[in-house]
Amino acid sequence: MLPRGRPRALGAAALLLLLLLIGFFLFGGDLEYERPRGAAALDGDPPADRGGHNLSDCVPPRPLPPKCELLHVAIVCAGHNSSRDLNTLVKSVLFYRKNPLHFHLVTDAVARNILEMLFHTWMVPAVGVSFYDLEELKPQVSWIPNKHYSGLYGLMKLVLPGALPPDLARVIVLDTDVTFASDIAELWALFAHFSDKQVIGLVENQSDWYLGNLWRNHRPWPALGRGFNTGVILLRLDRLRQAGWGQMWKLTATRELLTLPATSLADQDIFNAVIKEHPGLVQPLPCVWNVQLSDHTLAERCYSEASDLKVIHWNSPKKLRVKNKHVEYFRNLYLTFLEYDGNLLRRELFACPSPPPPGTEQLQRALAQLDEEDACFEFRQQQLTVHRVHISFLPHEPLPPRPHDITLVAQLSMDRLQMLEALCRHWPGPMSLALYLTDAEAQQFLRFVEASAVLSARQDVAYHVVYREGPLYPVNELRNVALAQALTPYVFLSDIDFLPAYSLYDYLRASIEQLKLNSERKVALVVPAFETLHYRFSFPSSKAELLALLDSGSLYTFRYHEWPRGHAPTDYARWREAQTPYRVQWAADYEPYVVVPRDCPRYDPRFVGFGWNKVAHIVELDAQEYELLVLPEAFTIHLPHAPSLDISRFRSSPAYRDCLQALKDEFHQDLSRHYGAAALKYLTALQQPPGPA
Amino acid sequence: MLPRGRPRALGAAALLLLLLLIGFFLFGGDLEYERPRGAAALDGDPPADRGGHNLSDCVPPRPLPPKCELLHVAIVCAGHNSSRDLNTLVKSVLFYRKNPLHFHLVTDAVARNILEMLFHTWMVPAVGVSFYDLEELKPQVSWIPNKHYSGLYGLMKLVLPGALPPDLARVIVLDTDVTFASDIAELWALFAHFSDKQVIGLVENQSDWYLGNLWRNHRPWPALGRGFNTGVILLRLDRLRQAGWGQMWKLTATRELLTLPATSLADQDIFNAVIKEHPGLVQPLPCVWNVQLSDHTLAERCYSEASDLKVIHWNSPKKLRVKNKHVEYFRNLYLTFLEYDGNLLRRELFACPSPPPPGTEQLQRALAQLDEEDACFEFRQQQLTVHRVHISFLPHEPLPPRPHDITLVAQLSMDRLQMLEALCRHWPGPMSLALYLTDAEAQQFLRFVEASAVLSARQDVAYHVVYREGPLYPVNELRNVALAQALTPYVFLSDIDFLPAYSLYDYLRASIEQLKLNSERKVALVVPAFETLHYRFSFPSSKAELLALLDSGSLYTFRYHEWPRGHAPTDYARWREAQTPYRVQWAADYEPYVVVPRDCPRYDPRFVGFGWNKVAHIVELDAQEYELLVLPEAFTIHLPHAPSLDISRFRSSPAYRDCLQALKDEFHQDLSRHYGAAALKYLTALQQPPGPA
């Protein structure tokens, strides 16, 4: 601190400082980086080196980021689409941030489900998340008539001072449709500009809406001039609570609603009306912190001057399709984060040590114990990888549950997208599909679904994105993600290259009823598997047709040529004749497609890449004494495809095969440990000559 | 400027300013963004809000970027691998930049070829590029014995003051192994800190190398303390030239080489020796501008304090595999730009209007003329898309030319990578392959090749990456990219799903010789096409074996079931019996695989997605009077694969088929315009019932 008690000298100094600082801003601000040497700015380089600055160019020096201070961000988020938007917003914030962050998320049940899983699996250091129940807060705003497309969710921002923890003094409030192009700490630093009276920081509205002259009888809510936009808000929660904010906005809203029928712009109308009444509450923020890209935006006045845009706001219901001659420019900034690999944001803040996210330490110990020289290092590393998971990536409205309902469970990556339409035609019931994608591929997938009438029409198909990381395909982890999200009492554990008989969904439910199964009974219904080698073939509509195709050589039993052991126990000969379900016994390498109760054992995630991933699951079912019942009218048919990269590696690499063998051995050791002598038969079966998978 | 002539008052003011600025740095620097209000810093908010700063935390305000000033960057780049590194470096620079840039690239012929095409097709606004011939400059440094892994290329930095244009006063010099994490204008702004005498800005070396105590008899070149690292250099070229830099470094180097056998760290040893002799030349830069990640780096001293790293330098020959406990952190920053979609950097600098890159205006006019309501809008937009092209993505050493040599030309995307090994086994000759990939996929492709012994062993396969943009597969543009890069007199125009007969390469060259063809003669040698429906099948080693498989129903003539017209004119019946080449006539929808002279007509890029892309090319050959000769022993076999997304769209969308028809019509109109009455037969052929492709 400066010595007190010399007010006059200080006053003079302050005045001089002011003068010098003005000069400083005008001529370039030669502050040194290690020690103050401001005076040097006055006798330094020729002005030619500084470019042609004028006053409006003078972006001031960036304020000090409050180093390692925890910054708080509140966001209201509801539904599947906003959850995707939030993911993109968070990626943009994390990309530039250098401070620990805490996200306060006001969510509905759908968004909470998605985002809890997303943040839990994301494991970003120095990021905390709290959830607040939107339903609980709704009554506080649901009385307000509102015409804005954000519905009630926009209005929810009004109640944040009461909803957030009482000891939270400041928060940045963001709409889900904003994208950061700079460090959020710079925004947080603007709190320092608030006077004692100011409680809310906002950017001026970049449209003429509140001027009230857009059309005849256009009557917007009252606002100061153009008013302010509430896509980005700095809130002094402590002062708002002290000032009785809860009463204040309700009084204003109630009064305005006496003459106005409803809010047009949700919370924004009410914030503006309050500010019009109490102008001292607002600290205007620089326009770059909320560049608004609505259809008739005046934002160009802002961005054509500023070289450094900070936050872009897609505040039109058209979002990226908004009409704006520079939309490509902004779209590129947005796409950057839409497609950004979120895994790369799992980086520590060196300068701000913070406790690691839950589970990280254990994981890092396990990773540190791996031996890089181990031939199976890649497998073990892949097994330990925690994949970021975005469940219910697209809107999903499960139908009311039917009795004995069955969810088809499968996993895929980009190269199998073209299977989805056919699968939807063959399986009219619910599906839970895990997709292994990069962030960029997830967007391609989204466009693919939007472009498909067949896929868009289905509300009972849930797509769960597991973000790619590591060289080996985590097939069993993917299956487990899809399985965990199935909502029906039964699941059909399928693979993406199979098309079930058109009647299978109905037939399976009828069979479960006829067999009087219940979800406690350990039964696995076997769906016999076949394959065609032709891309275009006429799918059999009955067992009789299927048998005819089989006899004519157009169809084969699945992997008849390469690996008959995988399905031999199904006993195709018996199936030809069978009229009723029949029981079969487990045998080594059996890997049928089965329908089981939803609470069946999970797949063993140690099997990554190609090989033994389903076999191990069937062993586990058998060890847990599931009865295997083959259904006489059920069938599913495998369509041809090129070999996957993983199967190519398996075939070409002896090391790959050796690792698979090591994994099998470890699996059997665990099996013995778990099931004791009963697991002996699996080891005995192993003694038989090993097959390819 | 401040009034002169009051030196004492100014002196006192400067002193006070200094004091105040110290306080200012200590307590957080509440500079306002719109007008100076520095005094407010002294009576503002409670210190609690600023976090616990201490002196070392005090990152000073960012200096003013010289708005719209053109910044110059020089980089030495040679060979395929450095060109890939340069691409990543440039992406990181462009991501954060807000100024027009000019890159001065000192390159060998390989890098120049690659980078000229890359920048030409990248079309980034406000980016200029100049090339300088590395070979011409070599004699100036080739006399220096050097042990560093960068070879002569590192040393080349010494001669930049003479090599760059004489009117260029300042330049930032970068190694290709650095990654930016901030705006390069901030680095440029550090030129302003140079005193009148200083000519070179450098960051201190972050290792103990130059202390000379790493091992017994370790004798490094002389340096000031730890010396400086030359991965990032600010050069005052004007002053260097004035000071006789060319003589200066040569004198020092010659003198040191009297007692030292060679440079260990290339140019860095010489820069340091000169600086040791003339310490006044150097302006030390903050450590964050060159965070050095070598094996025994001391960089943690830098990055554990600074929250804002600016440039990362992978200055170990191990690069990303360097041993450093924080390497994951830095790797993530690097991967960000390695995988970043470079197309997103094609964004204007609003605040700095600059002339558009060549061709852009024409393109934008054409795009603006498209009608968004046109059902074929997507096709027309895709046709106008300029794809960024990175030729020779991997090292490629063409073998000495053989007579009548033939390059296999094909294109693919990620879903066909698994074909490459088999293709290499079947075609021992040169190949030119275009790959349609995202930036991230290009890295997966690189790892795929590195992991494959078969692919790594081949130096005569050139891979050209065309970066993905737009929804439709630009099949013919890809073919043209691969075709343009073929270096042999003949090309075999194939598709990636085909495996040629093992003998085909030799047989084709022998046939060309026997037929006494020369590359002026317009002949297209037809390679008859077959298909198998099995993934695993024993590839026929002779025509006799092939015919046996055909007779047994294991092989078919290509698209026998779906589209026999495509290959019917090849006349398979005649081929069975043929002993010598025979001539066939063009017929509608004919699309054989052919060998033609390299200067054959290009593919028509209007055909994007699925359909008619090869057919149109054969029409063009016929219109130009190419003779079609079927070779009696040649064959190629199509392997099965799942239908592509494009073919799925074609089959499911009537609009897609209508657009293809519109494209065909336009193609025929152009044909008539070009070939007149001779093109009538193609229109007549059109009257026949249309087929699927």
UniProtKB/TrEMBL annotation, chains A, B:
Coiled coil: none annotated. It is found in: Golgi apparatus membrane. InterPro entries: Glyco_trans_8, Nucleotide-diphossugar_trans, Xyl/GlcA_transferase. GO terms for molecular function: glucuronosyltransferase activity; metal ion binding; xylosyltransferase activity. GO terms for cellular component: Golgi membrane. It is a single-pass type II membrane protein. SUPFAM superfamilies: Nucleotide-diphospho-sugar transferases (SSF53448). Its cofactor is Mn(2+). Pathway: Protein modification; protein glycosylation. Keywords: Glycoprotein, Glycosyltransferase, Golgi apparatus, Manganese, Membrane, Metal-binding, Multifunctional enzyme, Signal-anchor, Transferase, Transmembrane, Transmembrane helix. It catalyses: 3-O-[beta-D-GlcA-(1->3)-beta-D-Xyl-(1->4)-Rib-ol-P-Rib-ol-P-3-beta-D-GalNAc-(1->3)-beta-D-GlcNAc-(1->4)-(O-6-P-alpha-D-Man)]-Thr-[protein] + UDP-alpha-D-xylose = 3-O-[alpha-D-Xyl-(1->3)-beta-D-GlcA-(1->4)-beta-D-Xyl-(1->4)-Rib-ol-P-Rib-ol-P-3-beta-D-GalNAc-(1->3)-beta-D-GlcNAc-(1->4)-(O-6-P-alpha-D-Man)]-Thr-[protein] + UDP + H(+); 3-O-{(1->[3)-alpha-D-Xyl-(1->3)-beta-D-GlcA-(1->](n)-4)-beta-D-Xyl-(1->4)-Rib-ol-P-Rib-ol-P-3-beta-D-GalNAc-(1->3)-beta-D-GlcNAc-(1->4)-O-6-P-alpha-D-Man}-L-Thr-[protein] + UDP-alpha-D-glucuronate = 3-O-{beta-D-GlcA-(1->[3)-alpha-D-Xyl-(1->3)-beta-D-GlcA-(1->](n)-4)-beta-D-Xyl-(1->4)-Rib-ol-P-Rib-ol-P-3-beta-D-GalNAc-(1->3)-beta-D-GlcNAc-(1->4)-O-6-P-alpha-D-Man}-L-Thr-[protein] + UDP + H(+); 3-O-{beta-D-GlcA-(1->[3)-alpha-D-Xyl-(1->3)-beta-D-GlcA-(1->](n)-4)-beta-D-Xyl-(1->4)-Rib-ol-P-Rib-ol-P-3-beta-D-GalNAc-(1->3)-beta-D-GlcNAc-(1->4)-O-6-P-alpha-D-Man}-L-Thr-[protein] + UDP-alpha-D-xylose = 3-O-{(1->[3)-alpha-D-Xyl-(1->3)-beta-D-GlcA-(1->](n+1)-4)-beta-D-Xyl-(1->4)-Rib-ol-P-Rib-ol-P-3-beta-D-GalNAc-(1->3)-beta-D-GlcNAc-(1->4)-O-6-P-alpha-D-Man}-L-Thr-[protein] + UDP + H(+). Gene3D superfamilies: Spore Coat Polysaccharide Biosynthesis Protein SpsA, Chain A. GO terms for biological process: protein O-linked glycosylation via mannose. In the C-terminal section; belongs to the glycosyltransferase 49 family. In the N-terminal section; belongs to the glycosyltransferase 8 family. Bifunctional glycosyltransferase with both alpha-1,3-xylosyltransferase and beta-1,3-glucuronyltransferase activities involved in the maturation of alpha-dystroglycan (DAG1) by glycosylation leading to DAG1 binding to laminin G-like domain-containing extracellular proteins with high affinity and in a phosphorylated-O-mannosyl trisaccharide dependent manner. Elongates the glucuronyl-beta-1,4-xylose-beta disaccharide primer structure by adding repeating units [-3-Xylose-alpha-1,3-GlcA-beta-1-] to produce a heteropolysaccharide. Supports the maturation of DAG1 more effectively than LARGE1. This is LARGE xylosyl- and glucuronyltransferase 2. The lineage of its organism: Eukaryota, Metazoa, Chordata, Craniata, Vertebrata.
